[in-house]
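A student in our group prepared the protein record below, which I am reviewing. This is what I was given:
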Amino acid sequence: MPEEEEQDPQPAPQETPPEPAPAPQEPGSAPAGQPAPPAPAPAAPAPPAPAPAGGHEKPFAGARRSWKFVLKFLAFSLVFWGLEFAYQWYVLIPGEVGGALVRSFALAGATFFGLALCSSAVFRWKPRWVKYWYVRRSLGVMGFVFIILHFVSTQQFLFNWDLPALFWSLDPFQNPVLFGLAAMPIFFLLAITSFDWAVDKLGQRKWKAIHRLVYFGYLFSVFHFLLINPALLLNPAGYLLLAVTALAVGGDLYWFIRTVVAKKSSKLGIAVGVLVILLWLVFGYLGFVAPALQAGAAPQAPAPPEPGVDPELQEDVEAMQRFMERNELPVPNATLPGERDFQGERVAAQGQFQNLHYQTAGTASLTQANGSWYVVFGEDFATPNGPDLVVYLTPNQEPTQREDIGEGIVLGDLRALEGRQAYPIPRDVNVSLFHSVTIHCRAFNVPWSYAPLEAV
């Protein structure tokens, strides 16, 4: 929440801080020279030290002066992301490199932004720690880097760089991708102005005005990851992100209320703070309360899992079903290979799709044509639409568990909901080691359907 504007403590010339990070800057202002609560303590700083005497600050000069800190923080950031990736790849979605990259970049970026905002409240609570303000900026810059990598990996592995597909719905509560897209230009603006030369060029007043936008960018990003797939947050990595988010939002709200009560905030600061709070309330109502009211006053208790069914898998299935009920999903409609691609085809194995959680019908075959191997769905293939459906070639003949795709080969996103379609198998794959075709919901890590392959 916005807080009062204060004089920024400047480090001693011999201890010029480094510069990586777009640090969140408290919106709001107080008359110049007035101390902020708690009383005589200095507030959390925002801008860096002034440019060296006799000239303007050059781009990245502070980073060059503090290159040791920059390298250490970069190493810390890579280790943190590496742990996020390893947890996704080894535990939650074994062997799914694309999904693990998408999730780990998102979690790392959102967590770093939350920590950057948390530090603002911490500096007010412990003013003697204000000398570490440059860590806040470093967290912000690395958070932005991770968010950019999240966007790139999402395009590469989920959307195949089909940018118009991002706008399949213009309602951000149906298509939370829009919240993420709204946050990105704000974070970009904060990132490119987070260095000493930007403060020197803009002046502190303009610089602070720009960095107050962080509260709106963070608001958009939080609703993006809360609405896009809530089930993905129900694990230790998600719990960490939720805890950091709660601390960041709670800390900002606490200090905003304190400054308003103490009459240390300007009218502009109060107006911006009230606007941010109203947006949180409105988005929260539209995103969570309104859908719950539409679904019924009292949610029904989930049915007990069937004997032999993994309870965690059952929870993910129910979360996937709720997501499908609430969201209008884009319909896969990729261009399919023509018959000319399959002249002289030979079917080596074939099977019927089996129902797991949704009715799926038709045949799948392992077919050789033109010197290559393909998985081919027959003309009789049909399945309901679902979120992020992916086709695998799997070794287990009955891949009913999520772990069964761990040793599988990703053949690509499901191209269409019905009719003939073909998926080329990489040439270096030994097809004799695989005995089934699996359709898997990657977003919720839920097996959708499978077809056991029997030699013909």
The CA atoms of residues 245 and 269 lie 22 Å apart. The chain has eleven helices and ten strands.
